[in-house]
Design a protein that fits this description.
It contains 32 helices and 19 strands. With 812 residues, it is α/β, with parallel strands linked by helices. The strands form five sheets. It has a six-stranded mixed β-sheet, with helices on both faces. A four-stranded parallel β-sheet has the order 10-9-11-12, with helices on both faces. A four-stranded antiparallel β-sheet has the order 13-17-18-19. β14 and β15 form a beta hairpin. α2 packs across α4, α13 (233-246) runs antiparallel to α14 and α14 (249-258) packs across α15 (268-276). The chain starts with 15 loop residues before the first helix and ends with a strand.
Length: 812
C-alpha cells in the first residue's frame, strides 16, 4: 500500500491508536487540509468516539494547550463535529469531558438528549454552569406554556435513535423543572409557566377537598385559595371558572369577593350578584356553616382538658415556664408538629408549630416567632438547645406518631437540629403500635373496640386513616382532621386550628395510657406495658430475611412481636436472595440493580402504580417506589415490603441507597449474572468457533425459502434448564438442553430465537473472546467486555471479596 493512502481501506470500528498514527504521519507532512478531513472521517469510523478520543489524547498532556500542536488540532475538529452532530449522546459526553459547554447552544445540545430520555446526562451537562442552568430552565418553562405546541420541537428529531416522544410532554417536563430548581437552588420565579400550572393543580385539589370530599373547613379553604391565587390574573380567571362549576352565581360572587377577584374579571351574572350582596347576608351564611360544623364535633375525639390549659407561646419568657414543666425526669410528653402544606412546590416544609402535651396542659410553640426573637437577641441557639435536651433525655418519654417525617421537617427548619434523630433516647413511636393493631398475626383490623359506634355509623363519613384511625380504635372516636391542611404559618391562628393542634398531641398521651393499662384487649401481649415504659428488653435476634424493609422508629426502637427492642442492621444477603419490583418512574434504578444480579421486575410506563403491590404480594418482592405512590403502596403490602427512594438522586445513587438499606452484598460474580433484557439467570455457553458457525448458518438460511424445518442438528453444548418458576424469566415452557436450527433462525428448544444477527461485525474476530453466553429465555447474546469494568468502577465501594470467577457479559 502507498504511504499516502491514509484511510481509504480503513474498516469501521478501527483502533483509535492506529488512527492516531495515521494523523501523526499526516501532521509531519504539514498537510493541514488533509489532516482535518482525516480527523473527521476517522472519528466517524470509531466504534466508541468518546473512548477513542480519550485514548488518543491520554498519550499527550498538550491537548489542553492552545497553539500549534496535533492534539489541539484534534480537539478543535472535535468541537466542530459536536456542533454538527448534537443529537449524538457522545457529543454531549465529549463536551462534558472537554468542558466545551459555554461555547455551545444549550437548547440544541439538550433537546435530543431529552427526547432519548437521557435526563441524567442533561443534568450533568449543565451541572457546573449556573448560566446554562438558567437558560435550560427558561427553555423548559417556555415549552410548558399551555399554548405551546410540543410537536414543533419533536418534528426535526423523528429519525433520532432511541426516540421516546412519550417521555416528552408537559407533565414530565414540569417534574424535570422542579427537580432542577431544587437541585441547582434556582429561584422558581424563573419558571412562571411551570409554577402557574402547579398552582392550578393545587387550586383544583382544593376545590375537590372542599366541594367533593367536603373535608376542609370554609376558613381553611379560603386561606389556601388566597395564598395560591394571590393577584395572579391567570389563576383568578381559573378560580372564577371553578366557582361557577361548584357554586351558583350568588355563591360564586360571595367567594369572588372573599378572594378579592377584580369585578371586571367576573361574568355578568356573578358581577350582578356581587352588587346585591350585603354584610348581613354573609354573616348569616357563615353562621349556618358554623352551626353545621359544631353539630359534627360530637362525633369526634374531644380534648379532656379545659381551653385555658392550652398555651400558645411566642416569647422566650413564656417558653421558660414550658421548659421547667416539660424537662422533668419521668415526664411523659406527647409531641407533634404542623407546617404549611407545600402542594408539591420546591423545598422541604418548615415547621410552623411544635406541640408538647402534658397530662394537664398543652404548649403550642410558635417556632418562626421564637426563632426570630432568639436571633434578634443574639441567642439563636437557645431554642434548638431546649429541643435537643428534650429528645436526648432518656428519663423523659416522648410519644409521637410517624416521627421520622416530623424530624426531617424540623431539620429543614433549623440546621442545628439536623442530628436530633441520631441523638434521641426514650422515644415511643405509636406508629409501630398502630401496625401491630392493624396487621396482627390473624391479619385482622382491630375493630369493634368502641361498641357505641357501629360500622354503619362510621361509614357515613370519609374512611379514617393514620393517627385518626388509631384514635378511633383505642379511644372510640376519630380525630377531626378538617384543619389538617391549614395554613399554619398565618397568624393569628384560628380557634379551630389551636384545638386541632392540641388534640393531635394530647391524644397520644391517652392512647399510651390506655395501651399500657390493658394491652390484651387490643390484641397485644400482656408484657407490652413493660416494653413501653422503657425497661430492659431482650437482645434482638439477627433477622433471617432481608426481603423485608425493616423500618425502625426514629428512636432506634421498633416493636418486634410484642416487645419494643433496639433495632439492628439487617443480616447480609446476596443479590440472588433479593427480589424487587420497581415502579415505572424508577426504571433506571431497576436496570442498575439487575446489572448487579438482583431479581428485578420493571413496571411499564403505562402500568398503574398499584400493579407493583399486586406483583409484590404474588411473588414475594419488595416494592421500590418514590414520592406520593409510596403512601398508597405501603398500605397494600406487609411492613417493610415497600421502600421509598430519593427521586432527586441519579439512578446509581438510588441503587447504592437500596443496597445499603437492605445490606445486599454484591460480589464480582453477581455482576451481569442476570440477563439485562428479560431478567433470566440461565445462560447457554457457546464457543467462539461454534458461534461463528451459527452466525454463518443463519446468514445462509435467511436467504433460502423457509417452507418448514429441514431437520435439526443438535448442538454439542448443553444449557442448564431455565427455572420456569423464576419471576421475570417467563419462558414459554421448560427449556430442553441443546439448540437446533430451524428455518432461517438459530433457535433454542421451544422456538426461543438466538439473536446471533445482533452481534456487531468484528466481535467474532477478537482473539481474546473464547466464549459467548446466550440467554435461554430471550436469546440475547452476551460476551465479556469493557462494560463490566465500568460497572465495577461505579460500585467498587459496595463490592465484597469473593472467590467466584463466574464470567461477566456485555449486552450486544
Amino acid at each position: 500500500m502507498n504511504q499516502d493512502s491514509y484511510s481509504s481501506d480503513q474498516p469501521t470500528g478501527q483502533d483509535p491508536l492506529v488512527l492516531l498514527k495515521t494523523l501523526q504521519l499526516i501532521w509531519t507532512k504539514q498537510e493541514l487540509g488533509k489532516l482535518k478531513e482525516e480527523i473527521r472521517r476517522g472519528f466517524a469510523r470509531l466504534e466508541d468516539p468518546l473512548a477513542g478520543l480519550l485514548a488518543m489524547l491520554e498519550s499527550s498532556s498538550d491537548w489542553k494547550r492552545k497553539g500549534h500542536s496535533l492534539e489541539y488540532c484534534i480537539t478543535t475538529e472535535m468541537q466542530l463535529w459536536i456542533k454538527a452532530h448534537p443529537a449524538v449522546p457522545q457529543a454531549a459526553i465529549l463536551s462534558i469531558k472537554l468542558k466545551l459547554q459555554p461555547d455551545q447552544d444549550v437548547e440544541k445540545m439538550c433537546t435530543p438528549l431529552l427526547l432519548q430520555d437521557k435526563t441524567n446526562l442533561v443534568e450533568e451537562y449543565v451541572a457546573e454552569y449556573p448560566e446554562l442552568q438558567r437558560k435550560l430552565l427558561q427553555t423548559l418553562d417556555t415549552w410548558c406554556e399551555p399554548s405551546f405546541n410540543i410537536r414543533d420541537i419533536l418534528r426535526p428529531y423523528r429519525g433520532l435513535s432511541k426516540y421516546k416522544p412519550e417521555k416528552f410532554n408537559h407533565r414530565v417536563l414540569s417534574k424535570l423543572v422542579f427537580r432542577l430548581l431544587e437541585r441547582f437552588n434556582v429561584d422558581s420565579a424563573l419558571c412562571p409557566n411551570v409554577i402557574n400550572q402547579r398552582h392550578l393543580r393545587t387550586l383544583n385539589y382544593l376545590f375537590y377537598k372542599r366541594f367533593v370530599e367536603k373535608t376542609m373547613t370554609e376558613e381553611n379553604w379560603a386561606d389556601h385559595i388566597q395564598s395560591t391565587v394571590g393577584e395572579n390574573q391567570w389563576l383568578q380567571g381559573h378560580l372564577v371558572q371553578s366557582l361557577l362549576r361548584h357554586c351558583d352565581a350568588r355563591g360564586a360572587a360571595r367567594w369572588a369577593q372573599h378572594c378579592r377577584v377584580p369585578p371586571e374579571m367576573l361574568p355578568q351574572a356573578v358581577a350582578e350578584e356581587l352588587q346585591k350582596l350585603h354584610i348581613q347576608d354573609r354573616v348569616e351564611e357563615v353562621t349556618k356553616v358554623d352551626n353545621y360544623e359544631a353539630s359534627k364535633k360530637k362525633d369526634y375525639y374531644r380534648l379532656p382538658i379545659p381551653r385555658e390549659n392550652i398555651h400558645f407561646l411566642q416569647t422566650w419568657e413564656e417558653m421558660l415556664q414550658c421548659w421547667e414543666k416539660v424537662l422533668q425526669p419521668g415526664q411523659v410528653v406527647g409531641v407533634d408538629m404542623e407546617w404549611k402544606p407545600s402542594f408539591g412546590m420546591v423545598g422541604k416544609p418548615r415547621v410552623a408549630l411544635l406541640q408538647l402535651a402534658l397530662k394537664d396542659e398543652v404548649f403550642l410553640l410558635d417556632l418562626p416567632r421564637l426563632f426570630e426573637q432568639a436571633e434578634a437577641e443574639g441567642e439563636k441557639e437557645k431554642l434548638p438547645h431546649f429541643i435537643q435536651m428534650l429528645y436526648s433525655d432518656a428519663a423523659i418519654t416522648k410519644l409521637g406518631y410517624g416521627m421520622s417525617g416530623d424530624l426531617s421537617s424540623l431539620a429543614a427548619t433549623c440546621s442545628a437540629l439536623k442530628d436530633t434523630e441520631k441523638q434521641m433516647q426514650g422515644v415511643v413511636d405509636l406508629l409501630a403500635v398502630d401496625k401491630q393493631l392493624q396487621w396482627g398475626k390473624d391479619s385482622r383490623k382491630v375493630d369493634g373496640l368502641s361498641p357505641q359506634h357501629s360500622h354503619e355509623e362510621r361509614g357515613l363519613r370519609q374512611p379514617e386513616k393514620g393517627l385518626s384511625l388509631l384514635v378511633q380504635h383505642v379511644l372510640g372516636k376519630p380525630l377531626d382532621k378538617t384543619e389538617q391542611l391549614s395554613n399554619w404559618e398565618k397568624r393569628p391562628l384560628r380557634e379551630e386550628q389551636i384545638l386541632y393542634a392540641a388534640s393531635d398531641a394530647y391524644c397520644l398521651l391517652e392512647i399510651y395510657e390506655r395501651l399500657c393499662k390493658d394491652p390484651e384487649s387490643f390484641g397485644l401481649g400482656s408484657d407490652l406495658t413493660e416494653s413501653l415504659v422503657g425497661k430492659q428488653s431482650k437482645k434482638p435476634r439477627a433477622k433471617k430475611q432481608l426481603n423485608k424493609q425493616e423500618v425502625p422508629s426514629p428512636s432506634g426502637q421498633e416493636f418486634q412481636g410484642l416487645r419494643m427492642e433496639p433495632s439492628c442492621p439487617p443480616a447480609p444477603i446476596s443479590p440472588q436472595e433479593f427480589s424487587v419490583v420497581c415502579d415505572n418512574m424508577l426504571q433506571g434504578l431497576g436496570r442498575y440493580l439487575r446489572c448487579l444480579g438482583v431479581d428485578v421486575r420493571l413496571l411499564d410506563n403505562e402500568d398503574d402504580h398499584r400493579k407493583a403491590a399486586e406483583i409484590a404480594r404474588q411473588e414475594g418482592r419488595v416494592i421500590l417506589t418514590s414520592g406520593l405512590p409510596y403512601q398508597t403502596l405501603r398500605s397494600q403490602v406487609g411492613e417493610g415490603r415497600c421502600f421509598s427512594v430519593n427521586c432527586s438522586e441519579k439512578a446509581k445513587e438510588q441503587a447504592l441507597q437500596v443496597l445499603k438499606h437492605f445490606n445486599v452484598q454484591v460480589s464480582l460474580g453477581d455482576i451481569f449474572s442476570r440477563c439485562q433484557v428479560c431478567n433470566c439467570n440461565k445462560y447457554l455457553k457457546v464457543s467462539r468457533e461454534r458461534m461463528k458457525q451459527l452466525v454463518e448458518s443463519s446468514r445462509q438460511v435467511s436467504g433460502e425459502h423457509s417452507a418448514g424445518c429441514q431437520g435439526s442438528r443438535s448442538c454439542s453444548v448443553t444449557v442448564p434448564v431455565c427455572d420456569t418458576a423464576q419471576p421475570g424469566c417467563a419462558p414459554q415452557s421448560e427449556q430442553a438442553e441443546g439448540m437446533e436450527q430451524c428455518r432461517a433462525t438459530t433457535v433454542l428448544a421451544e422456538n426461543m430465537v438466538l439473536q446471533v444477527t445482533a452481534i456487531p461485525p468484528g466481535v467474532l474476530d477478537r482473539a481474546e473472546l473464547t466464549d459467548f453466553y446466550c440467554c435461554t429465555c430471550c436469546g440475547k447474546v452476551f460476551w465479556e467486555g469493557s462494560h463490566f469494568g465500568r460497572i465495577v468502577s461505579q460500585f467498587q465501594d459496595v463490592l465484597v471479596a469473593s472467590g467466584d470467577t463466574q464470567s461477566i457479559y456485555e449486552l450486544s
